[in-house]
Amino acid sequence: MSLLPSKLQAICCSLVCAVALAAGISSAVAQEAAIKYQEEKRAANANTVTIIGSSTTSTFTKIIEDIQNVLDDPRSNELRVLPVLGRGASQNFHDILFLKGLDMGIVDSGYLQAYKEKDSVLYGNVEQRVQYIAKLLNSELHLLAPKAIKSLEDLRGKKVNLWKPASVTASVTAAVFKLLEIDIQPVYLDTDQAFAALKKGEIAAMSRMAGAPQADYDKIVVDDGWHFVPLSEATLAPEKFNKLIGNFLPAQLKHEHYPKIIPQGETVSTVASGILLAVYNWPENSERYLKLEQFVKKFFDNIDKFRDDSRHPKWKEINLAADVPGWTRFKPAQMWLDARRTTASTEPPEMRQAFEKFLQEYATKTNTGGLSNAQRDAFYNQFVKWWQTQNPPRRVR
After folding, report:
1. In terms of Cα–Cα distance, which of 232, 229, 233, 182 is closest to 207?
2. Which residues face 329 on adjacent strands?
3. Mean pLDDT for each 10-residue chunk of the chain (397 residues)?
């Protein structure tokens, strides 16, 4: 199928012929050159998909680079994956909707509802236009500050760097401080500028929402005297902590993530949000839809290759079958899962049964009511890790 309307294609062929004739090439050769040009252009675009991430050092971009390295094979040219640098997970949602030539992107799961609330007319049916292929990872909130800053309350009225205005870092950090009723002075600096400002005392803290480990913190020197500010029951009032966990996933930053910052054997409590591989839902059987269908199949069929130690550690957390409340799964992805409900990449029925039993026992022992989606998701992620240690997964055939 040609990428160009027939009229436009004819114009292009005529131009190629005209250039060739002007250069002294015969009309027959010029016609052949024009045909080859169009065929090469068609072939170059036929199997190419684009995915937008964030900055060069971000976890999101590293995840996309892994996708490219695993799936993009120049020998067969079956599929070509083009990573695109973006502004972050918030802007990515908008870009998937409106940018020409963009197929997929890394987005925060909370932005679908956020955009609907922002403009109910423009984004009224956005769940039908932007859908998700899979939940990739949890993105943790990193709040780096001098060790004198013991809690978020110590940042009241102070300058806190929120990275880029359209980023998930800016929106999540602002939401956390708003929930806790702590006013701050937001500052927007890139990572290198923020490190310099923090060292000079020009800002009190710098925030970054990213999947741990985040490469930016490799720049930290051991004796800089900085640490990650904890968000825990020990540093927050109970009612504020409960409000926070009701809106975000509980998470931990570990020594293994940041050996220069977190001492051996210690962890830092924080919060996280779900990060998705989202896609524009093109009409079925359209050229763009068929390319994405091909991508989904190859991506899911090769999911075990992403768990290799050479890839980002976050790949070891992925569960392709994880549902995301409020979102619609892209049809080719849902069809792949439906056809392979008994494989290791999906959720084994016995694991779900064991998890539901665990939730019932937990509710009985703690005398608590129903859990929020965020709490249930957090429990499930921990349960999956434990289950996999007890039941090593079978490989997808």
Report:
1. 229
2. 132
3. 50 57 65 83 85 89 95 86 88 92 91 82 90 93 94 96 87 90 95 92 94 84 82 90 86 92 93 93 94 95 92 89 89 92 54 72 59 59 61 45
